[in-house]
Specification:
This protein is α+β, with helices and mostly antiparallel strands. The chain is 21% helix and 27% strand. Helix 4 crosses helix 6.
């Protein structure tokens, strides 16, 4: 079987003579006389010409040459917001643009970000989503490796430029699983003030909307409290009559729970690709065997059996 992400969004191609005088620093990067100055095919600003979904995850049976299954993949929050403003009802998944591909584990999972604002684990037999967690824009094909301890990690590159980060996930230890069960009620309770005060701008589960995405979330209590009370950018200040200090802390706990993933999957560490050091790296797990690697934006598909990992996620 071959698993790949397909994108269906038209574009207008314009081949123009490259103007080195107005290109600035980029002039040194281009050695062609003519370059593409195209744009997405759309109308009324950014509305695509074609109906959704604009991306799918596809399983191809290489023996028969037929499509085993095909499902919509990912979403486009900005387009969804624009359609909502026009009173247009959008499907559950519009489809996420972007070239990053997928990896397949021996345990029967497809891991893919594919340019979406989330990381997904898909059942390779059916295409059904088993697990996902919100992230910044996923900009790379996933990687996996097994550490000396025997624990397997799955990593994904997110963000761009100074926000570029490598994020790792792994199955929780028994202690982690126990904590997740006993803490489920606390997470549910902490969601209430977020839903009431924050979700209208920052979207469900902090995925972003009119305001920016809030996950991964790393701010401490003092910093978050200061932002809420004083406001920042286009965000207004909120008095204690609208949200108490205790509720702000509940919002922080909820966003941190989303950052950590859900179910029995741990968000293990995030490493900035620039100059900052990694955070929360598990001790004794460095120097593991690499099962697969890819650079940001590389690769479009993966074949079953490509990876030797045994990571399995249960919904």
């Amino acid at each position: 079987m071959l698993y790949l992400k397909s994108v269906g969004l038209g574009g207008v191609i314009r081949i123009q003579k490259f103007d080195r005088a107005s290109a600035g620093a980029r002039a040194e990067e281009v050695d062609a006389d003519y370059t593409n100055r195209g744009a997405p095919a759309g109308f009324h600003g950014s509305l695509p010409f074609f109906k959704p979904p604009y991306a799918r995850l596809v399983a191809i049976d290489l023996k028969s040459g037929t499509i085993a299954w095909r499902v919509p993949f990912g979403d486009m929050p900005s387009l969804r917001e624009e359609l909502a403003g026009m009173g247009v009802k959008a499907p559950e998944q519009l489809g996420a643009q972007g070239p990053p591909g997928a990896i397949v584990t021996k345990g029967g999972l497809i891991f893919i970000g594919g340019g979406d604002l989330a990381f997904h684990a898909i059942d390779k037999a059916t295409g059904r989503e088993l697990w996902s967690t919100p992230l910044r824009e996923t900009t790379g094909t996933p990687m996996t490796y097994q550490a000396r301890s025997g624990r397997q990690f799955v990593l994904i590159a997110t963000g761009r430029r100074t926000e570029a980060t490598l994020v790792a996930f792994a199955l929780g230890t028994p202690a982690t699983s126990s904590r997740s069960q006993t803490g489920a009620r606390a997470v549910s309770d902490s969601k209430a003030p977020y839903t009431r005060v924050c979700e209208a701008c920052h979207g469900p589960e902090g995925r972003g909307g009119q305001g920016p995405a809030l996950v991964p979330f790393k701010k401490e209590s003092t910093e978050l409290n200061e932002i809420v009370r004083q406001g920042i950018g286009q965000m207004p200040a909120f008095p204690r009559t609208e949200i108490s200090d205790a509720e702000i802390e509940q919002v922080r706990a909820y966003l941190r729970s989303l950052t950590a993933g859900n179910g029995d999957v741990d968000h293990v560490f995030a490493r900035k690709s620039a100059t900052s050091d990694r955070d929360d790296v598990p001790s004794g797990d460095s120097g593991g065997r690499v099962g697969a690697s890819a650079t940001a934006g590389g690769g479009h598909g993966a074949s079953a059996g490509d990876q030797r990992g045994h990571l399995r996620v249960h919904p």
